[in-house]
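Weekend entry, working from home. Most of the wet-lab plans are on hold until the incubator is repaired, so I used the time to fold the two sequences that have been sitting in the queue since the last round of cloning. Logging both here for the record. First:
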Amino acid sequence: MKRQKESLYEKIYNVVRKIPFGKVASYGQIAVIVGCSPRMVGFALASLKSGNVPWHRVVNSKGKISLRDSEWRIIQRQMLEAEGVKFNEKGKINFSEFGWNGTESSD
């Protein structure tokens, strides 16, 4: 089971690595591509131990940051804004402008 979970997490990380600079994807979008639940995507990103996965480019289906910890919420927003991603007055990202279509790659 542990090996299977690591394999799933690696699949999730590989998809998240494809999200281009200045774009975002939802947990659900990643889940559909990988074949798991959005919650599992969240677990995988929360357990990251290295900095080579752009975890900050994954937001919830409403286009909002899901992190509850205020320090990490602020960090995620700052990282996205540094890439040119804009938030509206309610803290939402417009997927039609900044959403990743799932095909273009950051490679």
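Second, folded right after the first finished:
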Amino acid sequence: MIVIAALGAGFVAYAWRSPIAAIAQPEPASFKAGEVERGAQLAAIGDCNTCHTAENGKLFAGGRAFVTPFGTIYSTNITPDAETGIGNWSLAAFQRAMREGVDREGNYLYPAFPYDHFTLTRDDDIGALYAFLMTREPARQEASANELVFPLNHRVLLAGWKLLFVSPGPYQAQPDRDELWNRGAYLAEGLGHCGACHTPRNAFGAEDSGRRYAGADIDGWHAYRLDSTADAHVPWSEDAIYAYLRSGWHGDHGVARGPMAPVVENLASVPDDDVRAIAHYIAGIMGVPKLQPPSAPQAPAVAMNQSGARPQSAGSQTLPPIAPDAATASDLGARLYAASCAACHEAGRAVPIGAINLALSSSITGASPDNLLRILLTGIPAKGDGQRNPIMPGFANTMSDPQILALATYLRGRFGGQRPGWDDLPATLSQVRTDMNPKAGRQASAARP
């Protein structure tokens, strides 16, 4: 018992962090305009607004729920409100949070805030990000209490988690790599925290270092593999990654949806050189594909609908009557495809009216059906920014579950490159429907403690 007590006391002494004194809220005019502008770009790369803004909430005021296997964590208020935000934080306090995952008062932060990546950020960039946040509109909003299982509701345990899974920064350039690669690595591994979504996690909620960029599930979507085993029918090139990150769309790979959509939206405000650097680095991770994907089938000739006419538009979400002789799921799926999908996906027209050849769609060829089911249900809304990006109606309210399942099964069989069908498709659809229910009030998230 004495030994155990001594070890416990030693751990507490090791884990203890002293508070950093509060300061008077800085005046926005005290920060240089150029520094604030650069901080805005860094915040966009870090996707800060997405995680620190609740649905219909005030920008950066926190309150977004992250449901993990360990309980629910709520993002914090990072506006310069002195009482409920970070208005009385000094730059040193902010830097400690970014680098060490410890707040101004000395409390450990849960790594839903990905300080295991942010620790790589350089001092000057942390200063620019601090300047940007301190010049935002203050919002008074108390932090919601986290709902975590015992003993993880005791933050001191995170000192042990950090010891096991966090390598302190800042980023050290690799001398055998060129400047563009190092810039991309710095952004993607640091503020961009790409691995937080694209790397699977272990039982402790940390990224599995042995499976970097091997794909993972987040927010009910599947973040695809970014390593050399990615099975896209058309291998990703640096130019394709750049175009995808810039516009959220590439004709050989599809459109950014789910958690990737706000990432692309934020990158629109980032300098071109930074986006190019990230693309260069990710292309290097992918390298030469190790696996040759199955041959992509050619899109079939556009099917006729029941009246014998070629479908003219998939913009209508009202389906024509399905003939009673569509007795099998395959027949039903084929008819639904002809009535609702073929006109856009086989027309050969440019976006937004045209659409990707479904034989190239990772949502159909991927190991998980989650992304395809979500796209079928929610569609792809117009972005409203004047860009020629794809649009697609959602069928959540116009197709029944048997129809969605039949269509998904048909798409997998027709365009999946001879891959086997998905297991437990009805259960997955039921879960996706549940996740999409706004009354649920919470969003699924990656497994983070």
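Plan for Monday: verify the second prediction. The domain at 329-438 is CATH 1.10.760.10 (Cytochrome Bc1 Complex; Chain D, domain 2).
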